[in-house]
Amino acid sequence: MSETPIKCNVSPAPELCTGCGLCADLCPTQAIKITWSNEGFLIPTINREQCINCGKCLNKCIALEQTTKKQDGKPMRVCAGWSKDSDSLKASSSGGIFAALAKMILKQGGCVFGVAWKDTLNAHFIKAENEQELLPLLGSKYVQAHTQGIYKSVKRELESGRAVLFSGTPCQVHALRTFLTKEYANLFTVDIVCHGVPSHLLIEKYYEYCNKGESTLVNIHFRSKTRGWQSFHVQRTYENGKKSLHPIYEDPYMRMFLSDRILNKSCYKCQYLSHPREGDITLGDFWGVEKYHSDWPIENGISAILANSPKGISLLDMLSMSMNLYDEPYEHLIPHQGGFQRHLELPKDRSNILKRLQQEALEKTIVYTCDWVKIGPFMKINRQWRIYKWLRQLKRWLKK
């Protein structure tokens, strides 16, 4: 049996592959599987003996699309809000909007598709049929999620007439729409404000790092609000029942992830940051809310919500009973939410950092990647030095 990564003759497919898995769900002979690349990103792999050269994968590949997305200004409606359900608010990364949307769809007899942990290292898309099955879909999973089979599953539910809510990254929502080829009145989509997907090598090394103690890591909660939404921590849960909280600026995983040095190559040239967005609704955190609404219950989490279509407007109208929703100027979101507009340059040493992740302990890669900061054309300073911490405090004080 011969299996090799798909090599398209049309540039720039391999480099800009998002790992969306669309090609695998389109393949009529199931010749395509989605596997991890050497750099730790999901890529299509084809069994040449099963391939019938139908070209469906190439014709629909979102990385090969020739059309340029029209840049349209602003969303149709912008809101800020939080859930009235304290349990949903606590379980969610920010304001609990997705949970409220999902419960609304479930009450209508519909189903919800989103990302859940498959095990400690891997996340995948699943379907939730009730509120209990919805719980694993709540909260942020800062890893690249497997999608194989999910687009076909969504289509089956839509064809049966059920209401479907699909939540994913903008490229995954776009892949779903491409797979379906037509609009469905009973499909509602949510795209998240995405920071990019880090290499899977990072969570593998992080797992090794966390398992150096007396017990095995069984769960990672990247956005614990135990100490508040604005100062969220990473919570690690171990097999012996012990839990530990770690600030994001000290946690190795979050430090590497937020450094933007080991993201998928396609993330540095993301086509889905601006408007029009891919989802009917876009959800993110309303960072900077304290500047405009200091009287809100900020420590519990406040969401930024964009309605990008008439469906999105309708969904927000239906949420008014279960949410505290307030219209908000779009300009309030822009300065603090890079996922709406930021374009990153591909780091020159990205390949080197990924090789280091493969070959050495995570602590060593952290020192190389995150500890040293340029403060001029010829000088570097270490983040662990007292003078660096003093300068950061001074900068915060001056901003006030």
Would you write up a description of this structure?
With 400 residues, the protein is an alpha+beta fold. It folds into 3 domains: 3-64, Alpha-Beta Plaits (2-Layer Sandwich), CATH 3.30.70; 74-359, no CATH class; 369-399, no CATH class. Helices cover 29% and strands 22% of the residues. The protein has helices at 13-16, 22-26, 56-60, 86-91, 97-107, 131-134, 150-159, 170-180, 200-210, 252-258, 310-318, 350-359, 362-371, 386-399, and strands spanning 3-5, 32-36, 42-47, 77-83, 111-117, 123-128, 145-146, 164-168, 187-192, 217-224, 233-238, 243-247, 281-285, 303-307, 323-327, 372-374, 380-382. The strands form 4 sheets. It has a 9-stranded mixed beta sheet with strand order 7-6-5-8-9-13-14-4-15, sandwiched between helices. A 3-stranded antiparallel beta sheet has the order 1-3-2. A 3-stranded antiparallel beta sheet has the order 10-11-12, with no helix packed on it. A hairpin with an 8-residue loop joins strand 10 (217-224) and strand 11 (233-238). Helix 7 crosses helix 8 (170-180). The longest helix is centred in the last third of the chain and has 14 residues, at 386-399. The model is unreliable at 7-13 (pLDDT under 50).
